Amino acid sequence: ILHRYYFYSVKRRSLLLLWRPPWGLFSEGRNEGFRAGECEMTYNRSRIAEAGAVVFHYSGLDQDEMPWKHYRFYKGSFLTPWSHLTYVMHAERRSMSKFDGGFINWTMTYRSDGNVFCPYIESNAAISIFKRDQAWLNSTLATKSKIALWVVSNCGLLRGSRLRMDYVTKLVEAGLPVDRYGKCFNNKEELAKMSSEDFNSYKFYLSFENAEHCKDYMTEKFWRSGIENGKVPVVWGPKKSDVEHLAPPGSFIHADDFESPAKLATYLLYLDKNDTAYREYFKWVEYPGEEMKRMKELYARTREEVLCDKLLSNPSPNIVESVTDFFYNLESKECL
């Protein structure tokens, strides 16, 4: 983030310049003029002098002309990579190191230890989920007639995607009925034809990430396909402690808690036959406690809303000395 709050009025600090859309695809980024809180976003680089911040998606770092030191003021500039996929960034490690030494000042990432928390679920969706009540739960549970669903398109490109494919194969071999869809199973068309009623009739969604033990890496597989659509996520990939920090308490089942895929399959089959035990995974809806208060606070404002808040609060200058350390050297060897 190129950040010059000490020169500008609140009006100027409220403009966010998005240097390049994610992966160069405008369909993947915010629309021109999108507003978050008091801030407006633009892709118009000619407005850089007005901007309180410049946001870089990691895929755009060093891809084209950058506002290097010739556009810095003497008190320092603030730039941040906006990362959604740590594992993709491994290919970017060499170019990322060019930005060590103070070029980047804030990090905006799904990791909760970044400067701006940018999870896969947006705050408006999270707020809606956390308002659910017993009436919603009763109506949702009444629709459950199938066991497990898995949609996957990355079959073996990454170590994590190979490991998860092997794990699910063993679940099926152990007797767990898993309806599998996606590019990996050559049936994307069948998935597209599935009604929302059928999609939501599953009790479990296999929220298996394609990266193992990447800090806080929980994607739409957990949130949209699982929690948001009223299914219990069965998690593989992120560490259990990370999921516990970021998800409603008791809302998921983690593969690490079981000695083998066969043991997990047996437990899921047990839950399928025991409505009372299955309902326990929705206690956070029926009886929200202190932990849900923390959840609501954590997701009340995220992404660009948090960035805007920080800009308008006149924060002290900050330097990320090594983005290589933050995005790579502090990750687990399994993730890398």
TrEMBL record:
Pfam families: Glyco_tran_10_N, Glyco_transf_10. Residues 12-120 form the Fucosyltransferase N-terminal domain. Pathway: Protein modification; protein glycosylation. Keywords: Glycoprotein, Glycosyltransferase, Golgi apparatus, Membrane, Signal-anchor, Transferase, Transmembrane, Transmembrane helix. InterPro entries: Glyco_tran_10_C, Glyco_tran_10_N, Glyco_trans_10, GT10-like_C_sf. GO terms for cellular component: Golgi cisterna membrane. Residues 142-323 form the Fucosyltransferase C-terminal domain. It is an enzyme of class 2 (transferase). SUPFAM superfamilies: UDP-Glycosyltransferase/glycogen phosphorylase. It is found in: Golgi apparatus, Golgi stack membrane; Membrane. Gene3D superfamilies: Glycosyl transferase family 10, C-terminal domain (3.40.50.11660). GO terms for molecular function: alpha-(1->3)-fucosyltransferase activity. It is a single-pass type II membrane protein; Single-pass membrane protein. It comes from the Eukaryota. Belongs to the glycosyltransferase 10 family. PANTHER family: ALPHA- 1,3 -FUCOSYLTRANSFERASE (PTHR11929), ALPHA-(1,3)-FUCOSYLTRANSFERASE FUT-1 (PTHR11929:SF145). This is Fucosyltransferase. It comes from Ciona savignyi.
